[in-house]
């Protein structure tokens, strides 16, 4: 990896961050806070929340096995994705390289930040080759985007290929692990120590059942986290979110139970899809959804909408012609979907 200073935009590297009232105070125990122009009434909502979410990071550190100083927390993973562009990519000059198809937010954030977004098409098994990805990079490529398990395809990416990119690419490699809690493949978190150019994204939105609270995580080197902290909004994770996340983390066994149930339901649902006349192909998945190639995705999608059942139509996505992406729901929701599809006649 080339030095972090060479990768980060010069204005960000030399940025003097906003210093909040609570940042400046540190040290001795204090009990009277007359520093932040808050209202002394209406506890606890009157006070600004901890800008660095220290208590929450301590807890996450134990659950994830990662030191708190290697954790960034944001308003969903989406904040961490956008920050990667704002920290590393000079608008109008730098580019990023991503697999395709993948999660749509990388391209949206690239477009917002006026950063060229280059794609390398996956193969027919939705796998990628490190060589092809690296061939698309040039001296102005700052970030490579990987997503494993990938959305919308569902499969985990080949770990050896990811490691090859990590050791050969000189810039930042982001691995989005939003669905890792459902996966048989191990997390890349264990690679952080060996690869200072790695950023791993995880989220409370999927297995943790907390999409509404908006809490995303980035795991990376201490130096990258420090730059993220400098650029983020000072109070980017509100008090209610921090409290609710702590609550969720107090019972990780609940999450394990959900995951187990959802994986069982995934097996049942996919088994039943095999017998549907309108389903032509099922793709391997390591997530809480699967991709199914249908004989007419648009028609089936419209039919399901009429029945009040919404799935994701991926028909227009590269390599996903006639594909629907099905999220695993409760047992009764899944049964309702199956019953509707069994009633469907072309
Ligand atoms: C759902 C999803 C996320 C989650 O984003 P949040 O902003 O944390 O809700 C991130 N990455 C991928 C690939 C996803 O599918």
Kindly describe this structure.
- With 346 residues, this protein is of the alpha/beta class.
- It has 13 helices and 11 strands.
- The strands form 2 sheets. Strands 1-7-6-5-4-2-3 form a 7-stranded mixed sheet, sandwiched between helices. Strands 8-9-11-10 form a 4-stranded antiparallel sheet, with helices on one face.
- Helix 6 links the parallel strand 2 and strand 3.
- Helix 4 runs parallel beside helix 10, helix 5 crosses helix 6 and helix 11 runs parallel beside helix 13.
- The longest helix has 23 residues.
- The site of pyridoxal-5'-phosphate (PLP) has 13 residues, from helix 5.
- Pyridoxal-5'-phosphate binds next to helix 5.
